[in-house]
Amino acid sequence: MDESPDSKKAWALSQKIFPILNDFSTCNQEDTFFKSQFEELCNYMQANGLQDFLQQLIINQVEKRFRDEIVPAFWSYFQKSELHNKDLNQFYNAVKSLYDNYKEMDKITSGLELFRQCTHVTKIPYNEKTINNALKLILKATVLAQSPLNYQAVTLSFYETALRIEDVDSYLGFDSGHCAACDQDSCNCLHLLQETNRKLSEMNLLEPLVGQTFTNLSHKYIYTHIQKMCKDNYDSFITRLETWLHTVVIVWLRKMYSFDTSICLNEAMDTFQTKLVNYLYNSYTKIRINQLFNIVIEYPESLPALEDIRLCLPRTDLKPLLMKKLQRAMETRLLHHGVSTADILTAYVATIKSLKVLDPTGVLLESVTDPIHQYLREREDTVRCVMSSLTEEGPNDLAEELHKRGAVDENINVEDGDDDWETWTPDPIEAAVSPNPPKDVGSRRNVDIISMLVDIYGSNELFVNEYRNLLADRLLSQYTSDTEKEIRYLELLKLKFGDSNLHFCEVMLKDVVDSKRINQRIKEDSEYSESIVPLSTLIVSQQFWPPFKEEKLELHSKVAEQIKQFTAGFETLKGSRTLCWKNHLGVVNIEIELNDRTFNLSVSPMQATILMHFQDKDTWQLEELSNVMQCTASLLRRKISFWISHGILSETSIDMFSVQNVENKNLAKVVFCDEDFEAESAMASVQDQKDEEFQNIWTYIVGMLKNLDSLPLDRIHHMLKMFAFQGLTTECSPSELKVFLDRKVRKRLLIFSNNLYTLPK
Amino acid sequence: MKVTIKQWSGVASWKWVANDDNCGICRMPFDSCCPDCKLPGDDCPLVWGQCSHCFHMHCIVKWLQSQTVNQQCPMCRQEWKFNNK
Hints:
The structure holds 2 protein chains of 2 kinds. By secondary structure, chain A is mainly alpha-helical. Chain A has helices at 5-17, 35-48, 51-79, 89-119, 131-145, 151-166, 189-202, 206-230, 238-257, 265-290, 292-298, 303-316, 319-333, 341-358, 363-378, 382-391, 397-415, 430-433, 441-445, 449-457, 461-477, 483-497, 503-524, 557-573, 605-616, 622-629, 633-645, 675-678, 686-708, 713-723, 734-746; strands at 535-540, 577-593, 598-603, 619-621, 649-653, 656-659, 710-712, 751-753, 756-758. The radius of gyration of chain A is 46 Å and the shape is elongated. Chain B is α+β, with helices and mostly antiparallel strands. Chain B has one domain (16-84): Herpes Virus-1, CATH 3.30.40.10. Classes of the chains: A mainly alpha, B alpha+beta.
């Protein structure tokens, strides 16, 4: 600074007028000055061209003041402690002190403004329009530059309280007179809020300081609100949520911004609102997608929720997420060993139905159900489950599907016209990325659940065979079976699987009907007498029934006599034909009278035969009886245990059984161990049939190895595929083949070394 | 102990009493039906010739119709005569 007396005087004067040029300690003193003094300073400064310099000096001081004193003081409020959340005062006090200081500074700048006018300073710091704007800019810059990392925690809790005051409906637990913030009847919470906002707005700090907080807070708030609503509730919420958003969140935001003059309120609110609505849809869809598995399982109760998702999907671009999430949920919750096949099928049907709601084109369905298909293919009892639920009585998705099938067919043909090109829409983009080659669009659109299930295996044959087995079992176990009902089912299945495939079953049902007639005719014959055993016979056309389990059994002579008579009757009735009896198959209604009790039971022929033998002779040696009945001792023992469990026979000594004429009271009620044994199928099991097929393959393999010496597994499989698999019902996978070959290796019929199979020399 | 059989429901399969299993013409089992039929047994019976060979009736009739000159048994080439036993 110049040492001339003039300049000294001018400096003193400027210090007096702008006390901020002094040390901080003195700046708060209320210095008075006179207009003449002010004019003198102005003249001096102007004369020396120092007005710009003085302005810069003052601004520097203001900045320094903000930087070193005011703003640190403001932020120090935030570090004090984790005050309890509902306390509004922490933030309010911070803002208030900042505001007071700001006002102080404002006073200085208004002095400066006056000075500028007198001295005609044109330059304004930071290119702002007014000094006041520059001040605000400095304040904003300083505040933001020094903001601590976690300051949002404080603002967040402050405004959360504010929002809670707004959202009265969600907090009905509070008395309306109560303040949601401080739990007191009368408080100044609202006032505090308004003051804070007004002050922040005036300092132009509202948006920079807490704008982000508003966004975060409203997002968080919306999310929790949706979550609360959607929990275990599959109603439609989207319209309700949108109204809520407008009446609560938007209104609240409007209030918050109402003092802010720096922005155009309506315009800003509109963009904010669009963003929030978007966010609302997004979060809602995400939450629903996370629940989707449950929603699917709950179908059709969850239909409203599904409709919501369908509405939201086009707005949110969340389809890929949906697919991924649902697939993952399926894998973790459905496709494992803990779930029974029937349950998987139910879930599968629900999935098909509900995804049809979400995406009528079926592309979504295809990609989501792919893992289910693959899994079901691995389960052994899938086919049986499908077929039995198809033909079961009672409420059952698949059976319903079968019944309505006929009607659906025609509708599809009508709506699937190609000439409807104006309403044509391309397949969604996901179609291209789905792992399966895109099928005919038509086939994808008319999702028919049964066909989809059948398609899992690629052929009808398995299902038809299974149905044949099921039907055979049913017909054999219930002699009084309702053939009309079965015929009706058969007709329905024919629509599905084709006439020719079910031809066998038709013959089977005809056999049942014919048998009744033949039985009657034979019994009318005068030569036939039913003196010994009332006999009725199911006469089957062996070629059309599935292979029966073979078991040897010599019937009791009385029954054998009756059977002989029946056969004779049949032979006279149907020339050149005779009967081959399946002694072990059938049902016997039997009445057992003991000294103190009687039983009425339906048992297998073998069990009946055992008792008939015991009627002749009270005590039998196991060996002896097995010789008479022509069956193995172990099987016989199993069957006898059935009677032991009924308390009719007892094992008096090892392998020695006798009739228990008087009930043994000491014997605790034995569990009916034979129950599941009784439920066994009369048909040869799938495994048996498969083994038989493998036996055929074996001859091919031996021939192959004789000619080519040694072969690796995949070569064998490949060659079998070319030559041997055509006639088989199921194609075997390389792994199955390996199991089979390894069994042969264990039996020393093959040698396996260096990954090559060879025949032993 | 007294055991009374109230009802014995047995199972038997019927079969043709013939000296072969398969029809010599269509190679289908006798107990099944000829390729043109759907239902076995009464609807697709067997017939015997005097040469003791037997066929599905439909099969042999078809065969005989296709023979313009001599009506011979396709198995033994003897003249075909139905054995109405």
